[in-house]
Design goal:
Elements (H helix, E strand, L loop, with lengths): L15 E5 L2 E4 L4 E4 L2 H4 L8 H11 L12 H13 L4 E5 L2 H18 L7 E5 L8 H7 L2 H4 L9 E4 L4 H7 L4 E6 L2 E2 L5 E2 L2 H14 L2 E5 L23 E4 L10 E5 L20 H14 L4 H22 L4 E7 L2 E6 L5 H10 L2 E2 L1 E3 L3 E4 L7 H20 L1
Parallel strand pairs: 3-15, 5-6, 5-7, 7-10, 10-11
Antiparallel strand pairs: 1-2, 2-3, 4-12, 8-9, 11-12, 13-14, 14-17, 16-17
């Protein structure tokens, strides 16, 4: 008999009642160090007082009006994002995949509005992940995502990640843009090389196509910069964000230049809930903290410390760990071929530490951006202990 909650998730048998900072507490009162952060969502930790106050204050006043009317919180957050990024304009959504869908529409609409309606296809890369809508899984093309859901949505051409020759060869008179995560998240925490990102920008300019970056997981400080593409010194034409900008509240956004958004006029796109007063109150509160002077520098320092400690751990346990990947506080432990990443994740959970699986037998470490040295030492000690036990078995 099918359960009341549709069984689409392989859930761990855990129920959490509350969170505080970098920790979650289950219904029995056991404490867990949270290096999953709701899959890179809880960017400022659990129950951050500034976010709690912003949400409760707004909840006492107004929850929802729809986008039939002006939403002051949207106007404030949009201006702030424009000031902090390459963008000139912002569309607010409820989730990351909605933001990515909006981004694809912006790319196609730009080509249509500028006299190139034949340009509608978007190039993506292998092992990409943009969400679970039909177009998002059609762009990713991974069997685990698309099996049983065919026929797929047309319009996406896939090339190998990091292969510029293959990418150039895939560009045709129908190509409208290129979509890429600066770091493949679900695909195994694989950062794009700085030179690769710079070359993509140059190729888009050369062929008159748009660069759509998916910074749903990498954005809002996760890598130590506000957005990961900043490490390469480039700017996209369109960018989708979510996860960290809401700190746990469902909110996403599609950012674009004025040039790219030329076709996005009244009636071309919309959302009932997107950017409602509650979401905007929380997202503005998140940005209050992340944009504070010194915050991102601290994330870089914390990420560097965690990396150094984990590199030593990898060296100590070659039977269990093969490599360390990632940038800032988006790191991936590549597990040795003889061991399944799921086995390590279960063992860590049994020791009171939460992590996230990824492709290529990788364990994702995505702690809140607010973690300190004590939490890092606890995490590394737990990983070290678990690897020692697994390596000896």
């Amino acid at each position: 008999m099918i359960p009341a909650v549709m069984p689409t998730y392989g859930r761990a048998d855990l129920e959490f009642e509350r969170g505080e900072g970098s920790y979650l507490f289950d219904r029995h009162g056991r404490r867990y160090l949270d290096f999953a952060a709701g899959v890179a969502v809880v960017s400022l930790g659990h129950a951050h007082p500034h976010l709690v106050e912003a949400l409760t204050a707004q909840a006492r006043k107004l929850w929802h009006t729809s986008n039939l009317y002006r939403v002051p919180g949207q106007e404030v957050l949009a201006r702030r994002l424009v000031e902090l990024t390459f963008a000139d304009t912002v569309f607010f959504t409820n989730s990351g995949v909605e933001a990515w869908e909006c981004g694809v529409k912006v790319v196609r609409k730009y080509q249509n509005a500028t006299g190139n309606p034949e340009r509608w296809r978007v190039i993506t890369v292998e092992n990409a992940f943009h969400g679970r809508t039909m177009s998002a899984i059609s762009a990713a093309k991974q069997e685990k995502l698309v099996k049983g859901f065919g026929p797929l949505v047309e319009g996406f051409d896939q090339v190998a990640f990091g292969n510029l020759n293959e990418l150039r060869a895939a560009i045709t008179h129908e190509t409208a843009g290129i979509s890429l995560e600066p770091i493949l998240g679900e695909g195994g925490v694989r950062p794009a090389a700085v030179d690769y990102l710079r070359a993509l920008r140059e190729i888009c300019d050369e062929f008159g196509i748009l660069l759509l970056l998916d910074e749903i997981q990498t954005g809002v400080g996760r890598t130590g910069r506000l957005f990961a593409h900043e490490w390469a010194g480039i700017a996209p034409d369109v960018m989708c964000i979510a996860k960290g900008i809401g700190g746990g509240f469902p909110v996403g956004a599609c950012l674009a230049t004025e040039r790219a958004a030329v076709g996005m006029t009244p009636g071309t796109h919309g959302s009932t809930y997107g950017g409602n007063p509650l979401a905007m109150a929380v997202a503005n509160a998140v940005l209050d903290v992340v944009a504070e002077p010194g915050f991102l520098a601290r994330v870089q320092e914390t990420g560097d410390l965690l990396r150094r400690r984990l590199e030593a751990t990898v060296r100590r346990h070659p039977k269990v760990l093969a490599d360390l990947r990632g940038v800032g506080l988006m790191l991936g432990l590549k597990v040795a071929p003889a061991v399944a990443n799921g086995k390590v994740i279960e063992a860590l959970r049994a020791q009171g530490m939460l992590t996230v699986p990824a492709g290529d037998n990788v364990i994702r470490l995505l702690p809140p951006l607010t973690i300190g040295e004590a939490e890092i030492e606890e995490a590394v000690s737990t990983i070290d202990r678990v690897c020692g036990e697994l390596g000896a078995s």
